[in-house]
Amino acid sequence: MNQADTAWMLISTALVLLMTPALAFFYGGLVRSKNTLNTMMMSFISLGFVGVLWATVGYSIALTPGNNWVGDMSRLFLSGVGLEPEGAIVAITIPHMLYMAFQGTFCIITAALISGAIVERMRFSAYVAFICIWSLAIYAPLAHWVWGGGWLADMGALDYAGGTVVHINAGVAALVAAIVVGKRRDYPSSSLIPHNVPFVLLGAGLLWFGWFGFNAGSALAAGPAAGLAFVTTMLAPAATLVVWTFLDMMRSGKPTAVGAATAIVVGLVAITPAAGFISPMNAILLGAIAAVPSYIGLIIRAKSSLDDSLDVVAAHGVGGTVGALLTGVFAQKSLNGLADGALFGNPYQLVVQGTAVLAAIVYSGVGTFVILKLVGLVLPLRATASEETSGLDITGHGEEAYMHVGTTMSAVEPGPGARAPQSVLKPASI
After folding, report:
1. What residues make up the domain containing 48?
2. Using CA of residue 255, residue 301, residue 37, residue 20, what is the dihedral sign?
3. What is the pLDDT of residue 344?
4. Neighbour-count burial of 187, counting CB atoms closer than 10 A to its CB (0-12 exposed, 13-18 middle, 19+ buried)
5. What is the number of other CB atoms lying within 10 angstroms of the CB of residue 190?
6. How many CA atoms lie less than 13 Å away from 407 in the CB half-sphere?
7. How far, in Å, CA of 312 to CA of 266, rounded?
8. Alpha carbon distance 103, 95 (integer Å)
9. Among the four residues 3, 236, 243, 340, which has the most C-beta atoms within 10 Å?
10. What is the dihedral of CA 74, 17, 116, 264, to 10 degrees?
11. Which residues pair with 9 in a beta bridge?
12. Distance between CA 187 and CA 189 in Å, rounded?
């Protein structure tokens, strides 16, 4: 047991957990005001349902010895997961229980990421059922393949903090979900612009902040590897933001705030699989390269009939794929204490990385399709036309994100000694 490592991992776990509320703000600002709460709840609800499922079942599927495909289920309901380092699938110097919690935050946000493709039209109950099944049937086995001693780990696939397990996985699931659920009824005829860009920027900033725990925490210790992952996580998104700004200027003559927020996320996604394997200068190069395919992906999606509402595919699917492949090009043996030598990147390593990417695409794609169809047999996936028109905040949750001018509040129960106002007046300054 190492107290410094434990302290760092406590902080990292909290940082990664913060990323899910940050994602809620990022996604919530991108939708129309009538769907703000529903969209944000799609992230927040994962903290509860997926968090509990991870502790009770998912961890045992993903990160116990087992075979090449799934764990041996020896840690069901946290059996044997205690306050000592012993019992974890990897050598750690922190409490086993803390390692489990850290890995659980990854599962939580991966499930939440998918929601960006089906906001404003999927029924909340069906969505909750979907992410519960998906986190156990898709995320946990794929995590085992890469991090739990599965067949991709045996091949030597490199995924420092989740380029394949988290981002490609979520991006492909988002694509399939957008197709199966279908596009919004007023897409693309109506103007579906973000209602609160400051929310988007706040979410992107908090995601970047939390991502230091996501990547540097994946070192599982407060050492040089964490320091390297921390620096690359700072530099890669910075480079993506620079290139994205130039692309915006060349295309429209104006750098947009939503574009800047998206660029930050794309850079973070791309560096995730490589964070502890590449040098800081190569991180800048990787971040710069990653901006181009994701930017092109956004343009192609906008001209297609695919309603990937918040561009999860371009940001996470494409960004994660680029990052995973470039990891095989830029990774260095001399970094992260792996071995002396030059580049990991060689034709064989690139084949291994490509195999991992393809495996994630096929498994996540087919599995997501099957799960959605099964859920659809029990619960309707789509909100009705009238519910979509009214907005899913009111119809799904009985709440609104914003009190509109003239809206009565007479039904609100006032607190002791308080008076409930009868209406909201428009300030003279507006």
Report:
1. 3-386
2. negative
3. 56
4. middle
5. 10
6. 10
7. 10
8. 13
9. 236
10. -120
11. none
12. 5
How far is the C-alpha of 126 from the C-alpha of 382, rounded, in Å?
Answer: 8
In a domain, 397, yes or no: no
Separation in Å, CA 71 to CA 58, 208, 230, 361: 10, 32, 30, 21
User: For the chain, how many structural domains are there in total?
Assistant: 1
Amino acid, res. 341? G
> 280: cis peptide before it, omega within 30°?
no
Q: How far out from the chain centre does Cα 169 lie?
A: 10
Q: For residue 332, what are the β-bridge partners?
A: 343
Q: What is the CATH number of the domain that holds 13?
A: 1.10.3430.10
Query: The whole model's pTM is what?
Result: 0.91
CB neighbours of 396 closer than 8 A, spacing ≥ 6? 38, 123, 124, 383, 387
Residue 421 lies in a domain: no
Paired tokens of 374: 């099964």
In this structure, is residue 164 part of a structural domain? yes
Contact present, 108 and 20 (Cβ < 8 Å):
yes
Along the chain (430 residues), what's the average pLDDT of each consecutive run of 10 residues? 97 98 98 96 98 98 96 96 95 97 98 97 97 98 97 95 97 98 86 91 98 98 96 98 97 94 98 96 97 97 92 96 95 61 65 96 98 97 95 94 60 41 35
Phi-psi region of 364 (alpha: psi -120 to 50; beta: other; left: phi over 0): alpha
Extract the tokens encoding 130.
């979907």
- The candidate with the shortest Cα–Cα distance to 219, out of 166, 282, 268, 160, is 160
Phi/psi for 371 (5° steps) reads -65, -45
Does any domain span residue 423? no
